[in-house]
Design brief:
By secondary structure, the protein is of the alpha/beta class. The chain is 41% helix and 10% strand. A 7-stranded mixed β-sheet has the order 5-6-7-8-9-11-10. Strand 7, helix 8 and strand 8 form a beta-alpha-beta unit. About 13% of the residues have low confidence.
């Protein structure tokens, strides 16, 4: 090694120790004392400087006072780089699920899913590639504020099987209806819409894609509409849900009578349950998937609303307006708590769900065929009634509705 007088101090690492090289006096010097320790403050750096840092090494300082470092694996370095720029990734389709799980965790540590600028695109990249692995079940029960603040991010979740929106006070015209009725939730099986201030117009909007375009909630099997201002007219829209097996219409404006039971039995094949169905207790509803902790972080962020100092002019309005509203709400809740156990639970379920339906239809067709065969034998022995048969047919056709006539003409 050649040394120049113009250069500064030169250190050489030999056998794990740093040795000072000097041409005039070859004497060993230590860069640090034995009792010196230091800490890397990489995470404390500002965000702008953090993007330019080089953290591919792990530094350690042993007891002998020697500085040691190890290099991170190429997999970890690549994973960190992708996680830092996951919002710029075009697609993860074909990327192994085991690595994608680690990549999702790394992106979550870097707050890619909580930052409003990167969260929508980052979630879209993962949801397009892994669908139900990212989120299979989503419970947003009584989280109206969270839905309003994170609606764009929530709409990125695809292939959900269960969605609980109970008590979110959505109304009939909330923007989340576009997401619920989209093809992204065609796999939805359970939908809880209780206590959302829905009316017949809301049910009409909820069922419109299925009734008109045969798209949307085609696979829905369980629907909770309790504590909404819906009537018998709104139930007519639900007949398009052919896969619907369980329905909750407790505490609505619907009167349970023989006419309602006959309508649901005839149009949807459902009967009134004598006992409450356990599926409507919300005990099994939970958030499940990779993004479970992301939803919890959103809730914490939504709850951390900055407190504003009230101006003197608004103190009176706040006292007489807000306090009165709180008192009325508490009184209404206390009054309703006494009658919680008094209202009647109205649950309907399908008499022949899916697998049993085909067997029931087979038995029905066989019974109908036997009846027709007996009718033919009777008609051969009763020639005097043949002249009245066309008149009976005309009378039966006149009692059918226009929809029934169109159905008959389609065959």
């Amino acid at each position: 090694m050649y040394l120049n007088h113009d250069c500064g101090a030169v250190y050489v690492r030999e056998k794990g120790e740093l040795r000072y090289v000097n041409a005039d006096a070859p004497q060993q010097h230590r860069l640090f004392n034995r009792d010196v320790s230091f800490k890397l403050c990489i995470d404390i750096l500002p965000s702008a400087a953090r993007t330019k840092r080089n953290d591919h090494f792990i530094f350690t300082y042993n007891k002998e006072g020697s500085l040691r470092y190890t290099v991170k694996s190429l997999f970890d370095i690549s994973l960190q780089f992708i996680a830092d720029h996951v919002e710029h990734v075009d697609s993860l389709v074909g990327f192994p699920e085991q690595m994608a799980d680690k990549l999702f965790s790394a992106a979550e540590e870097r707050h890619k899913f909580t930052d409003s600028h990167t969260a929508p695109r980052a979630l879209q990249v993962f949801c397009e590639a892994y669908e139900e692995l990212v989120l299979k079940s989503l419970c947003l029960r009584n989280r109206h504020l969270l839905i309003c603040e994170r609606l764009e991010e929530i709409s990125k979740f695809q292939s959900l099987e269960s969605l609980d929106l109970y008590g979110c006070r959505l109304g009939d015209n909330h923007d989340i209806f576009k997401y619920i009725t989209s093809e992204a939730l065609a796999s939805l099986v359970k939908l809880f819409m209780g206590a959302n201030r829905l009316s017949d117009a809301g049910l009409q909007r909820l069922t419109a894609p299925v009734r008109i375009m045969k798209k949307g909630l085609e696979n829905l099997q369980l629907l909770d509409l309790s504590e909404n201002s819906i009537t018998e007219k709104g139930l007519g829209y639900l007949s398009c849900f052919e896969s619907l097996e369980k329905l909750d219409i407790s505490r609505t404006n619907i009167t349970v009578n023989m006419s309602l039971k006959g309508f649901l039995r005839r149009k949807m094949g459902m009967v009134l349950s004598e006992t409450p169905l356990k599926e409507f207790t919300h005990s099994d509803c939970k958030t499940e998937g990779w993004a479970e902790q992301v939803i919890n972080q959103w809730e914490v962020t939504a709850s951390e609303v900055p407190k504003k100092e009230h101006k003197p002019k608004t103190n009176a309005l706040r006292f007489y307006g807000r306090e009165k509203f709180v008192r009325e709400t508490l009184n209404s809740l206390s009054g309703s708590s006494d009658t919680t156990n008094e209202y009647k639970v109205v649950h309907f379920y399908k008499l022949y769900p899916r697998g049993l339906n085909s067997a029931a239809e087979h038995n029905m067709h066989s019974t109908t065929a036997a009846t027709i065969e007996k009718g033919k034998k009777r008609s051969l022995s009763m020639d005097e009634q043949q002249s009245s048969t066309p008149l009976a047919k005309r009378q039966s056709l006149s009692t059918l509705s226009a929809e029934d006539l169109d159905l008959l003409n389609s065959y």
